[in-house]
Amino acid sequence: MEINYRLPGRIDGHRPGAHKSRGTGEGFVFRHLAPFLARPDPRRLDLRASLADPFGGLKVRIQEQPATLKIYALLDLSGSMAFRGEFPKPVVMADFTEALAISAHKNGDSLGVFGAAERLLPEFCLGPTRWPESARVLAGRLRSALPRGVGCRGMLTAVRRLPARTCLVFLISDFHMPLSQIRELLAGLSGHWVVPVVIWDEGEKIPSAPGIARLIDAEEGGERLLLIRSGLRERLAQNLNQRKERLGEVFRQQGYRPLILDRGFSAATINRYFHEFH
Amino acid sequence: MSFSQPLWLWLAPLALLPMLRSLHHGNMYSWNGLLPHDPLSSLVRVVILAVGVMAMLLLISGLSGLFRGEYSIPRSGYGANLVLLLDRSRSMDDSFAGRSPSGAEESKSRAAVRFLEGFINSRPHDRLGVAAFSTSALFVLPLSSNREATLAAVRASALPGLAQTHIAKGLAMALSYFAEDQPSGSRGIVLVSDGAAVIDTDSEALLRTNFQQWRPHVYWIFLRTAGNPGLFDSPPPGEDTPQARPERHLHLFFESLGLPYRAYQTENPEDVGKAIADIDRAEKAPFTYQYKHPRQDLRGWCFGLAAMALLILLVFKRLEIRL
Amino acid sequence: MRGWLPTGFTEWCLAGALMLSLMACLPLGVEMQGGAFSYLAVVDITRSMNVTDYRLGNRMVSRLDFVKEELRSVLAQLPCGSHLALGIFTERNTTLLFEPIEVCEGFQDIDEAVVGLNWRMAWAADSRIASGLLDAFKTLAAFDADVLFFTDGQEAPPVNPRYRTRFDEVRGRLQGMIVGVGGSTPMPIPKFDDTGKSIGFIGEEDVPQRSTFGLSEMAPEDIEGYHARNAPFGNAPSGGIEHRSALQESYLIELSRETGLDYLRLEEGRLAPALLDARKAKPARVYRDLRWIPASLALILSVLAYAGPHGWPRLPGKTP
User: Fold this and answer.
1) Is A238 within 8 Å of B26 when comparing Cβ atoms?
2) CATH class of C31-204+244-286
3) Would you kindly state where each structural domain of chain C is located, as residue ranges?
4) Which residue of B4, B314, B321 to mutate against C (max C Cβ within 10 Å)?
5) CA C314 vs CA A121, A148, C228: distances in Å
6) From A154, which residue of chain C is nearest by alpha-carbon distance?
7) Which end of chain B has less Cβ packing within 10 Å, N or C?
8) What is chain A's mean pLDDT, rounded?
9) Chains with ≥3 CB–CB distances under 8 Å to B
10) How far is residue C151 from each of residues B160, C92, C137, C155, C261, measured CA to CA in Å?
11) Looking at the structure, do residues A129 and A76 belong to the same domain, yes or no?
């Protein structure tokens, strides 16, 4: 499983890597011509262009230098992520993190992970690394984890810890939080490329047989007693769709497009997302 | 509504339990903010809560012995409000012959009690009060529908007598029963005595006013002892004074009231029986009486309704789904 | 669809509670020999009972009123099946207003009759307590009930110890107790006119201060102004205290010893416990209801149904 993540723009990478960057160098992609004196490297002399120059000036070809990328996964580990319906959210998060680690390794990129609820959770944090092994261990922990935090203040802390230089940030959550908090998070991430990964579960639509269900909010602890029946289930589905649209709007306002995983981890869905991105 | 075993009521706080805990499995849900508002579900929740509290309260009420106290509702039948005014002077212990009863002889009080018992038992709808008098008036039992109580009071009047016959106090006492009770329907006073006494002028005026106010039917069973001149014979002029013939003058007083009045001059137990039978016939006017519902044990209702509440809870519990 | 049998702890509890509640609707009970009481309350209604030396709440009440209140409270506490008769005592007679009446059926009537007790029912002013007791032994022995004789022990006129009533013949025919009413300090006796209005207190000269019947117990030479025919008790002003009244406790205790009755001094709240003493219960067939057994089990199961382990999957809270 791999995630062929791609960027919508160029990065300022110093290390040669696999991504379009603003840096110039050994890459294959031609960017523009420059006077020889601007970059006195005889290997890059473009003879045809030099001959064509009416003033006889030497021209060199400026090639793009592909760069490496810092990738971060911000995992929301608040209570709502503990919901285990058809596709347990922690498992989806674990799959995603693991796939990301492998892909990053292949691309020579580094991956950092911040797991957070109302605070950062050190056992679900990982410094930037190129080695997928530690990410795999973290993913293993994640699979059996029972998130029980409240709120997303820890996510804001994580956002502040990100390097100033542009990174690719996967914001992985169900986004079951007030839109204002989401906006605050996104505002903190404005210098980065952000992929909001929305993990939902079909089980949240309560597809079971009719009956009485007592639902306890995983974070707030409040409870509701619902007489589940088809009419109510339709209205719940409507609510979820509306929520999805509202989330989409919030992300689009910041220039992001949500990656919605509501049927478990699916590499196809993810790669389609990145494909459509460009 | 009251409780016969109120100590159980200390358990009443248990009725809060259904508000604090739920019968239903708690499913963890990611965000209740996503759930639609649903009046029907809210209704179901309130119903389950209320039924749960009710089940607890009903069981505890039943254990506490909930009962509905005696209450009366008006019904119509045949009967009256009768005050039995019984003479308890010492002479009532004698026989009609005027001596201590011996052998098969019956004292006047025993004869009166015997027939009054039959009378009381034959009149299920009456409200009967009992008053007695000798030198003073005795408040014995208020107007009541409790047959057993009336019988107990009438029987007690056969106990040895007390002193003199002070009829005015007795009549005033009997009339006070109506003032106290303000009964609807017909009122009557059944006076059973073997003599009378002079009523002084003040008392007579007062009695007259009260008689006019309450307008009771008056029945006087006069137990005539041998040698007593009785109520009806006109004595020779000059002897016709209240002091000489108090019984006759009481009779004249009753007649002068202008109320339905019957005097029975009885000379043996059989006469007493006939007199009482006559009163029984006369006092069969249509009458709104108070039917007393006896104290009603509501425990059965409590437990039955609790069972229904538990059945509802069980149904709701079986409708439970788990995510 | 699940089967008809309950599944899970909560459902079993509810189903059990339901069955037990239904059981509690059935007439479950047993006939038992049990505690019902039978009392003949005889109340002294002579003048000295009008002395106000009891406190009820923050109000001074007469001995008679206090006795009435205590009797009413006993009446309210007697278990169903108990019987109470009410009698009065003046002069030398004891009589019943009514024979024993069942207290639950007849509560209202008995209560009103107790309230109706009044000193004006008295048919004589004298108060011969010993004779009254003797009379009670004669007339009340026929009832299978304990006698309660409420009196302050004030004999009026005072007894001449030479003419004491003898109880040897009747001792043991009647069970029960003498209840001493009144305070220990002699208090003035209120006086009323014919219409029942209070007109002050009884003066020294209004009551006989000593027995003037028969022969004095003192030797003639000790009596001031003794004259065998005209003044066998002397002619000195008596200077007595018989117009004041206190509880004659030693006299009543003596009477109780002679008659074989118990003695109890009436103070607030002491009567009911003494009368509801199980040892005084008459054997009577009492229906003992047993529905409380299934009902209380149903309650326990209902509580378990709610308190049981179905509750929270886990308590939401802070991250560990």
Assistant:
1) no
2) alpha beta
3) 31-204+244-286, 208-241
4) B314
5) 20, 10, 106
6) C319
7) N
8) 83
9) A, C
10) 21, 13, 16, 10, 14
11) yes
Residues in C closer than 8 angstroms to A79, CB to CB, are 316
Q: Which residues contact B202 (CB under 8 A, 6 or more apart)?
A: none
Give residue C1's pLDDT. Answer: 46
CB contact under 8 A, C316 and A221: yes
Q: Which residues of A touch B24 (CB under 8 A)?
A: 212-214, 225
- Tell me: pLDDT of B230 over 80: no
Q: For residue C43, which of C87, C84, C99, C93 has the smallest C-alpha distance?
A: C87
User: Which CATH number is correct for B72-292, 3.30.540.10, 3.20.20.80, 3.20.20.70, 3.40.50.410?
Assistant: 3.40.50.410
Q: Do A239 and B34 touch (CB under 8 A)?
A: yes
In a domain, A268, yes or no: yes
Q: DSSP labels for chain A?
A: -------SS-B--SSEEEE-BS-BSS-S-EEEEEEGGGS--GGGB-HHHHHH-TT---EEEEEB--E--EEEEEEE-BGGGG--SSS-HHHHHHHHHHHHHHHHHHHT-EEEEEEESSSB-GGG-EEEES-HHHHHHHHHHHHT----B-SSHHHHHHHHHS-SS--EEEEEE---S-HHHHHHHHHHTTTSEEEEEEE-BGGGG--S-SEEEEEEETTT--EEEEEE-HHHHHHHHHHHHHHHHHHHHHHHHTT---EEE-BS--HHHHHHHHHHT-
ipTM of the complex: 0.77
What would the pLDDT profile of B298-314 be if each residue is shown by its tens digit?
899 999 999 999 999 99
Among B106-110, C130-134, C165-169, C224-228, where is mean pLDDT lowest? C224-228
Q: Which phi and psi (to 5°) does residue C308 adopt?
A: -65, -175
Q: What is the pLDDT of residues A3-19, one digit of tens each?
A: 777 766 666 555 666 66
A76 touches chain C (CB under 8 A): no
Cα–Cα nearest to C93, from C57, C44, C153:
C44
Mean pLDDT of chain B: 83
- Note whether A117 and A132 are same-domain residues: yes
Q: Which residues of A22-57 are buried (b: 16+ CB within 10 A; e: fewer)?
A: ebbeebeeeeebeebeeeeeeebebeeebeeeeeee
For residues A78 and A189, membership in a common domain is answered with yes
115-144 of B, contacting A, C-beta below 8 A? none
pTM of the model: 0.58
Question: Quick one: A104 and A159 in the same domain?
Answer: yes
Q: Determine, for residues B31 and A217 on separate chains, whether the beta-carbon distance falls below 8 Å.
A: yes
What does the radius of gyration of chain B's CA atoms come to, in whole angstroms?
32
Amino acid type, B63: L
**Residues B101 and B91: beta-carbon distance below 8 Å:** no
Structure tokens at C244: 């004041």
C310–chain B Cβ distance below 8 A for any pair = yes
Number of domains in chain A: 2
Q: Of C25, C104, C109, which has the smallest distance from its Cβ to B304's Cβ? A: C25
Closest by Cβ to A150, choosing from C312, C313, C318: C318
Please give, rounded to a whole number of angstroms, the shortest distance from the CA of A272 to a CA of chain B.
Answer: 28
The answer to whether C145 touches C104, Cβ cutoff 8 Å, is no
Note the pLDDT of residue C242. 62
Which DSSP string corresponds to B18-51?
HHHS-SS-EEEES-GGGSPP-HHHHHHHHHHHHH
* Probe site for chain C from A148, A153, A212, A225 (most C CB atoms < 10 A): A148
SS3 readout for B90-102: HHHHCECCCCCCC
Residue A93 belongs to domain spanning: 68-201+254-276
Question: Which residue, C254, C280, C38, C40, is CA-closest to C139?
Answer: C40
Q: Give CA–CA dist A154/A177, Å, rounded.
A: 13
Q: Which amino acid is at A90?
A: P
